[in-house]
Amino acid sequence: MPDFSPDLAKNVVQAFLTSQFDKKTEKEQRQLAKAIEDNDLDKISELKEKLSKFEDRYSLEVWMDNAANRMTKQIGFGTHISKGIHSSSKGDNINFDPNTALPKAVVGHQSIKNHQLDASGNAAALPLYSFFEFEVQDGKKVKDYIIENDNSFELSLSSDPDLSKQYFKAFRQALVGKNKQPITSEYNKQTLWPHANKQYTCIIPLYPSSLTNIVFQKIQHIKYSDETSSKRKNRFSNKEDVIQAAYPTISDIAVVKLGGSNPQGVSRHMSTQGGINYLLPSLPPTLTRYNTHFKPSRFATSIFSNALEKRISPTLLKIFSAIKTKPNNVKVRDLRKQAMDEVLTQIFDYAHYMQNELPAGWSKDQVNLNDSEKFWLDPRRAELEGEESWKEKREAEDWHKDIIHSYARWINSLLQKKFKDIKDGFSDTEHTQWERDMQAMIDLYERAGKGVFL
Length: 454
Description:
Elements: H1 6-24, H2 26-38, H3 41-57, H4 60-74, E1 75-78, E2 118-121, H5 127-132, E3 135-137, E4 140-141, H6 142-147, H7 151-154, H8 161-176, E5 191-194, E6 200-203, H9 209-224, H10 226-234, E7 254-257, H11 268-272, E8 276-279, H12 306-311, H13 313-324, H14 330-356, H15 371-377, H16 388-396, H17 400-418, H18 428-447
Antiparallel strand pairs: 1-2, 3-4, 5-6, 7-8
Helix pairs in contact: 2-3, 4-8, 9-10, 13-14, 14-18, 17-18
């Protein structure tokens, strides 16, 4: 984009000052118009005198002198702010402009092409932020020309060329000045990064306000844009002329609020965000198909319970679906067998967890759990001192058959509950088939060297 002419730059600056004047005197200007309409001479004189003071305040020479010599010292700009760590911090902000790229699949500050500078400090100096953010053309703002050292804007800030250059230098220093001796605060955190020879670098983390602001804007658009809101509303409409369409959503979002009831005390971005900062899920990957950490409740009589039913409900749905399907051909029966095998795999994984991960003797606290399942799920209890009789009983009894029988009875009861109209169809024949299925899986595990009954 070519440089602006000094005259055009001056028009932009004057347009900003006019907008600030109109914003501050909106009430008085309405009152003046009403007073003129009513021919109230005293009120007209009073309001004109009041507006004259505002005109002086927002004149080019007065406002720029105040902005360059006072506001720049009372407000700090940066992509990373100190008050985001603690709202009472008086540490310096940093405008971080890295020249290195992040590795692939890593998202951070460098991932943003156009950083939105944040500002924190005295609220009375925030008009300087508004000046820097004033749009010139095609999305380009005053701050962009100042950062780029545009000659036209260098001469647009005062009728005195020397003063204009002085103001421009002060503004540019506030936006991009590299602080050779940045100041931290006792409220900031510290991280000591070790080097060789027992040396350390003290790192002061700052809040990545520019990055979190972009994340906030994107999530707000996804969740609350007019298009999304309309599609969400149409989802529940029964009108024939309403078109229903898919819309995006984001789940498992947490919110951190900065600044309490006064987010402006943290920064300009926090003020516009209402202090809200979104946190996306940051969780370790699930390495298995399901969580194998399962044990019956303390008062359960069996592992084959409502709790187990809820835990493996997605797999049970596959069984139910296969049973519903007609005709009952070979393909359908294979799907049902596959789902049954998946149920058994999950149950055996839960058993493996209880056998090997829970402390030996955990079943002693299970006041109602039947002995057969205690023998199955807590085999290392036999190794404990004082459990000799329990060990002998475990070795003497043929409890394995009880487990198989309990599983088959449980499956049959689930099917009878699900298909009440044909519940009589799940009888001894089906019960025997579920026992055979479980025995077949037990044999398969044993051939693979993974005994189900230890």
